[in-house]
Amino acid sequence: MRFPAFTAPALLVGAFLSLSPASAQVTASGHAEHLLADDHSWNGTPYDHYPTTRPMLSMIKLTIPAHSALPWHVHPYPNAGYVLQGTLTIEDRQSGKKQTFHQGQAFAESVNDVHRGVSGDGPTVLLLTYAGSPGKPTSIPLPGQKKEY
To answer: Which of 29, 66, 102, 137 is deepest in the core (most CB within 10 A)?
Structure first.
């Protein structure tokens, strides 16, 4: 059976019109919620430089049990954290300054300042992002202390 010449284009138009809106691709911008933009850490210490070696970004999800303190440590590189669950109180050993961050809050960690994190009444889950260098640690415990993670 032979169709008239106008039928094939009409079939294509009909097929195009029958596509569901869900299958059509739309270009759109995403919604950005800026969580942190700092040139200094939570305790006010300014960041002075990035490593001069090849950069390596890393990200970890760290879970701290309830009512626990991490060992005293330093970070040699700028880094940022985000509280996914619970609360985190960061303590600066030299000044005694403390600040508590709650679920949904971001914080800029200190560089080369001795500090530790303390969890609250429940487990604390953090997302930590570091701007470091390949083969170098992102957290250095003080002598006699356990590793942070």
So the answer is: 137
Where do the DSSP E strands lie in the chain?
56-64, 73-74, 79-85, 87-92, 98-102, 106-108, 115-119, 124-132, 140-141
Where does 56-141 sit in CATH, by number? Answer: 2.60.120.10
Contact 62, 126 (CB under 8 A): yes
The band of 18, judged by pLDDT with boundaries at 50, 70 and 90, is low
CA distance 130 to 79: 4
Cross-strand partners of 85: 125
Per-residue DSSP letter, 15: H
Query: Which residues are CB-contacts of 137 (< 8 A; sequence separation ≥ 6)?
Result: 76
Dihedral angle, C-alpha 85, 47, 74, 42, nearest 10 °? -40
